[in-house]
Specification:
Layout: H1 3-10, H2 22-25, H3 27-41, H4 46-60, H5 63-75, H6 80-85, H7 98-111, H8 120-129, H9 132-155
Helix pairs in contact: 3-9, 4-5, 4-7, 4-9, 7-8, 7-9
Length: about 170
């Protein structure tokens, strides 16, 4: 193998450019999303919230949000193992608490809402794991990350440059 061939095998594909800076072009909407995101965090333990954000971002294929929330979770002390296993949580439930499983399952049901309603049994499991106030806030958090994902995917936000502040 020549040096050029070796270089070509290890050379990364260039990153794509974002389509537009929606936060700059629609600052009022961006500020409203930040306020909603802040409100959605209240009363939900950060490790659970990070799992919800990562799982919704996996489903929605939002690379920017996956990058951000995985880094935030790691910086907050989450294990790489739990983040890696999240996409296959049904086969690796033993990495998560029953409460986290209920939240992850509800996240999937709300995120994939085009498949129909949130199934009664999924909602019942979440309602059994969270009190009504917590459940309401969890639904807000799930809805909020889904909105962020849609902004990220539609405007092609570029992953890889986020640095956690924690």
């Amino acid at each position: 193998m020549t040096t050029n061939e070796a270089h070509e095998r290890t050379q990364r594909v260039p990153e794509h450019a974002p389509r537009l800076d929606w936060a700059k072009l629609a600052p009022e909407a961006f500020k409203a999303m930040v306020r909603l995101d802040t409100a959605a965090k209240l009363g939900i333990e950060p490790p659970l919230l990070n799992l919800v954000k990562i799982r919704a971002s996996q489903i929605n294929h939002c690379a920017f949000c996956l990058d951000m929330h995985s880094k935030d979770a790691l910086a907050a002390g989450e294990t790489a193992e739990r983040i890696i296993q999240l996409d296959a949580w049904r086969e690796s439930r033993h990495f998560y608490t029953a409460r986290e499983v209920a939240a992850i399952e509800l996240t999937e049901a709300i995120t994939e809402i085009t498949d129909g309603f949130v199934p009664d049994e999924v909602y019942a499991r979440a309602a059994g794991a969270f009190d009504e106030g917590e459940l309401a806030r969890l639904i807000v958090a799930i809805t909020t990350i889904n909105a962020w994902n849609r902004f990220g995917v539609s405007t092609r936000l570029v992953p890889g440059h986020y640095t956690p502040t924690t």
